[in-house]
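Raw record, unedited: Zinc metalloproteinase-disintegrin-like brevilysin H2b
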Amino acid sequence: QQRYLNAKRYVKLAIVADRSMVTKHNGKLKKLRKWIYRIVNTINEVYRSLNILVALVYLEIWSKEDLINVTSAAKDTLASFGNWRATDLLKRRSHDAAHLLTNIKFDGTTVGKAYVASMCQQDSSVGINQDHSKINLLVALTMAHELGHNLGMSHDVVNTEKQCNCGTCVMAPTISDQISKLFSNCSKNDYENFLTLYKPQCILNEPSKTDIVSPPVCGNELLEVGEECDCGSPETCQNPCCDAATCKLTSGSQCAKGLCCDQCKFSKSGTECRAAKDDCDIAESCTGQSADCPTDDLQRNGQPCGNNAQYCRKGKCPIMTNQCISFYGPNAAVAPDACFDYNLKGEGNFYCRKEQATIFPCAQKDKKCGRLFCVLGPTGKRISCEHTYSQDDPDIGMVLPGTKCADGKVCNSNRECVDVNTAY
């Protein structure tokens, strides 16, 4: 658990500057870009104390017209920006969070707004920020604050439930001239709770050099174009393989970090760098030519798994018993075959396929690929055929594709029980 919490995280940030920002900078886009690069450099500096690096991987400037309605109603603007990000921006450029920078003044004292504990979510990993000051640092700290909300942090307050050790830290409810670049004990706890509870996956991946769109800064711990390594400032760098002042490898070094970098040299070819997680995963080994561990690979579909009783599909070993356990708890088991005869009826929730409003019953050979039936605990004389159904998601409670339905056979995505060799 502690290792998971201590792992370095990378927020790959997309920033959108709206039309009002272009007007504010008199149409000088180069000047506007520089202003934003400075903001991101400060945000990265602020977050390094939490072992988070923030990299600008995309910058979009709406120089002709706004692509959403940016208004003084912060709540509405945030909602439409989140919606636009999910339906438009994400399809064009991969990133973890998107923030809008605007010169429109929000109602009341609001200078920014963001969804809380939403990092990595499609329509809510967003924030909006008002470019409210001539001082770059104050705008950067506003965006750092809103990004903090995305990462699960609430405001620093002192009340009966919460005693925060700082009144002027990044997550202070209001911005002041005394504002600091530090995070309070409350923010650190909130962030750790967010990691534990939500397990956001997207921020575990390091951006590649070519993903970062801001000019390289030696000493910011991000590996950028033109750098061989970046271990932070000369004062804080503790990596003997990297010259902190130049961001070049020290003499005789082949690498400075990576799963296949051992004491500044590439690990020997064949050295395991990522163990197989389970039957459907493959262990990866170093090539001897690179500091990076090869891409995580999976066993081929149809590879036997689960004591040779099941078959792999997309890196998972779908086992019917486990599907019952996930719905009904540890005492659940797959129901007897007789329960699956309900799927032959093709009525109510019992079928193999449903297209629009039409229900297709299962053929006899496919009955174990339709609705899943389970029993709870030991069975007596009477068996109740337990099943699960959801109005919102018709796939919930159905046997998962890839599940074994007979010897040498699996359910395909059409819910037919087919030979494992033809399924894949």
